[in-house]
Design brief:
Blueprint lengths: L5 E4 L2 E4 L3 E2 L15 H13 L4 E3 L8 H10 L7 E6 L1 E3 L5 E3 L3 H15 L6 E5 L13 H13 L6 E4 L3 H10 L4 E3 L10 H9 L3 E2 L12 H7 L1 H10 L3 H10 L14 H8 L8 H8 L10
Parallel strand pairs: 3-4, 4-5, 5-8, 8-9, 9-10, 10-11
Antiparallel strand pairs: 1-2, 6-7
Helix pairs in contact: 1-2, 3-4, 8-9
């Protein structure tokens, strides 16, 4: 069980629970959210509660989430770290398409700089398709990392991360350019990325799982809430089942950071309260034995 409350994200310490902005877009992360006032309220409340790490992407929407963050929070608090992702674009129907030649990556970083209205992005994740669409042709990894390293040298990004990748890519990225983050799917119901989680920890790299409750778009939180073991631990601590599942993820290593997303202030407050859920060894052993039921989703 871990007790640290912060961990380095690149060269900056952040709290271990931040905010993922993906759900501030419309259904399927496409188009604007139906309640923009609620989204703005969530962003403001997150800052009020001390959130110092917001994860976003130009292709959330596309465009709309970055613009919402800028319009709501700019000028940004000095302590706030903004993380984005490059390597994909959206088609007219909202599909996700690789767009990750070195030139694409440079262009997307420039788009993020403009839409967020910053001179430097704190960390940029290279989004590959190794884990969710390995059949797709992808640009050579070294060329991609080289383009991002040049942007880092130019002062346009502070740190590089990788997302949706396997262990070999993590090793190569650590060796060639050095990275500040790995962002892959991992949670109580799907622990298939354990090797990468442990590998990141061995290199002192932050591991930032997306879908820690399973995909919100395909029923992950409902599966968590229905599990009898999770419900029993939740009743013991007088918290919600989803809070137990997030606390379990946080307990997997001091380098694990959470970025749960929501468009509800009440849900945001529940997510941030996970930092106070103290699971004991008995709880962790019981949760470790929960049957894995991977809940797929983008």
């Amino acid at each position: 069980m871990t007790t640290n409350t912060t961990f380095p994200l690149g060269d900056q310490l952040v709290r271990r629970i931040g905010f993922g902005a993906m759900q501030l877009a419309g259904p399927g992360v496409f188009g604007p959210h139906a309640d923009l006032d609620a989204c703005r309220a969530v962003l403001r409340r997150a800052i009020d509660l001390g959130v110092d790490h917001v994860d976003t992407a130009q292709f959330y929407g596309p465009d709309v989430v970055n613009e919402l963050i800028r319009d709501t929070l700019h000028p940004y608090p000095e302590h706030l770290r903004l993380v984005t992702k490059v390597g994909a674009r959206r088609d007219d129907e909202g599909g996700w398409i690789p767009s990750a030649t070195p030139a694409d990556l440079v262009d997307q970083v420039e788009q993020n700089l403009r839409s967020l209205d910053v001179e430097r992005i704190d960390l940029v994740n290279l989004r590959r398709f190794e884990t969710d669409a390995p059949h797709l042709d992808q640009a050579p990894l070294d060329d991609q990392l080289g383009a991002l390293a040049e942007l880092r040298d130019a002062g346009k990004i502070a740190a590089i991360g990788v997302s949706n990748v396997g262990a070999d890519t993590v090793r190569r990225a650590v060796e060639t350019v050095g990275i500040g983050e790995v962002q892959n799917a991992f949670g109580l119901l799907d622990r298939s990325d354990r090797e990468v989680l442990d590998l990141a920890g061995a290199h002192g790299v932050a591991y930032v799982p997306f879908f820690p409750l399973g995909s919100a778009f395909t029923g992950g939180p409902a599966a968590i809430a229905a599990d009898p073991t999770v419900r029993a631990v939740a009743a013991k601590h007088d918290v919600r089942a989803t809070q137990v599942a997030l606390a379990w993820v946080l307990a997997q290593g001091e380098h694990v950071l959470l970025i749960p997303g929501t468009s509800s202030v009440a849900h945001l407050e529940e997510n941030l309260a996970v930092a106070d859920v103290a699971l004991d060894e008995e709880d962790l052993a019981a949760l470790d034995a929960v049957e894995q039921r991977p809940v797929a989703g983008h």
